[in-house]
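for the recovery benchmark. tokens below, seq after
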């Protein structure tokens, strides 16, 4: 039986094109590598039948803590959006508290503070990375600032050295939205270990993705500016994910229902087998793209010993439409990550208006106008990479 996606726009392989010559992110080729482990792990879940909170979930949490060098407590949850929400809830943020974040991200980053009635304060992004620019941070901090929420956009860490330093001077915790960056490094340190709290998403197309929705919250064991009892904070997050239950049917706070399905944990355990190899392969492909395209179009190359997880590979093209048409003609999939948040109707319309308008963040707006994300995954062949490069070069 062949099942078509309900909407082309919701297809994780990218928009618009019917007969692509390669995949934007190739989950099929990845599955072929790990098929035996995936099937074995799924069969074990079917065997024990513990579909909710089965043993694979804590096992995955343990594995993830190990991957993050024992520096964090890991709490699995339903998706990367919930991960931000339960972290904010566990911090005890109150309506009106200010959260400083970036206008260049996926909607989830801003949706959570808005849902929790927090005040969203956007600041401009760094032109080199598209990430929250620490240069604007100090001026945006007020006595009501209770959280700084940078995003590691496209898989590349923000400058956490500077962000955490400034935040710590003001006693404000930082939460890294690491939905796109699991495996990335900033100055040799791993994404999701540098801030008091971090979150990631296991959406299928993410650097570590499952076969449905999933997410995780990480609490740094050594607090920087967050609550000093990090074990209690992690336990609070775990409770909130389970309807605020301290024990079965004893609800001591308002929570949500946000769990990682056992089957998804089982799939993720299989995917961990190829995570490092995929990460290395993506570094090679990125180097190849950069060497071939440097000077011809805009690139957001990593500096020093930073490593992107290459959740996406962005290029910047001033006259973007012509390049999009060329990619479409060549049947090369692409996407546009992301339009700016501050101009989204949901938060600048008649029901909710955060007060931001087009023109407020010229750097973020220019990136949003010029960005094209091109195919990037560990299973791109050399011929496919060359096809992408030659299409871009012919049209730049
Ligand atoms: C930067 C960012 N934050 C949060 C999310 C939300 O993750 P999820 O789709 O798992 O809820 C995403 C997912 O696309 C994302 O890219």
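predicted aa per position
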């Amino acid at each position: 039986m062949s099942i078509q996606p309900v909407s082309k726009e919701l297809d994780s392989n990218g928009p618009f094109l019917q007969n692509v010559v390669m995949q934007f992110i190739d989950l099929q080729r990845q599955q072929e590598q790990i098929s035996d482990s995936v099937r074995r792990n799924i069969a074990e879940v079917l065997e024990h039948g513990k579909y909710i909170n089965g043993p694979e979930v804590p096992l995955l949490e343990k594995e993830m803590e190990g991957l993050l060098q024992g520096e964090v407590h890991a709490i699995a949850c339903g998706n990367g959006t919930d991960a931000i929400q339960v972290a904010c809830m566990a911090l005890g943020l109150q309506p009106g508290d200010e959260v400083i974040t970036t206008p260049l991200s996926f909607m989830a980053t801003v949706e959570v503070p808005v849902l929790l009635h927090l005040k969203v304060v956007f600041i401009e992004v760094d032109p080199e990375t598209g990430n929250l620019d620490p240069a604007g941070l100090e001026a945006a901090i007020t006595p009501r600032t209770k959280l700084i929420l940078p995003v590691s956009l496209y898989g590349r860490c923000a400058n956490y050295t500077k962000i955490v330093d400034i935040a710590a001077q003001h006693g404000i915790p930082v939460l890294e939205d690491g939905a796109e960056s699991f495996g990335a490094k900033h100055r040799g340190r791993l994404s999701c270990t540098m801030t008091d709290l971090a979150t990631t998403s296991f959406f299928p197309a993410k650097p570590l993705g499952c076969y449905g929705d999933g997410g995780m919250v990480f609490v740094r064991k050594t607090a920087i500016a967050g609550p000093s009892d990090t074990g209690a904070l992690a336990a609070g997050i775990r409770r909130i994910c389970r309807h605020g239950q301290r024990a079965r049917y004893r609800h001591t706070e308002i929570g949500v229902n946000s769990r990682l399905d056992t089957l998804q944990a089982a799939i993720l355990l299989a995917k961990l087998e190829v995570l490092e190899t995929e990460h290395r392969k993506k570094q090679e492909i990125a180097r190849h793209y950069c060497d071939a395209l440097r000077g011809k179009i805009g690139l957001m190359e990593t500096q020093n010993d930073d490593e992107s997880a290459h959740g996406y590979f962005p290029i910047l093209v001033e006259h973007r439409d012509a390049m999009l048409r060329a990619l479409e003609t060549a049947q090369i999939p692409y996407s546009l990550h992301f339009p700016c948040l501050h101009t989204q109707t949901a938060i600048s319309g008649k029901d909710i208006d955060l007060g931001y308008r087009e023109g407020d963040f010229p750097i973020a707006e220019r990136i949003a106008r010029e960005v094209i994300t091109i195919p990037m995954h560990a299973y791109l062949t050399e011929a496919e990479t060359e096809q992408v490069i030659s299409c871009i070069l012919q049209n730049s």
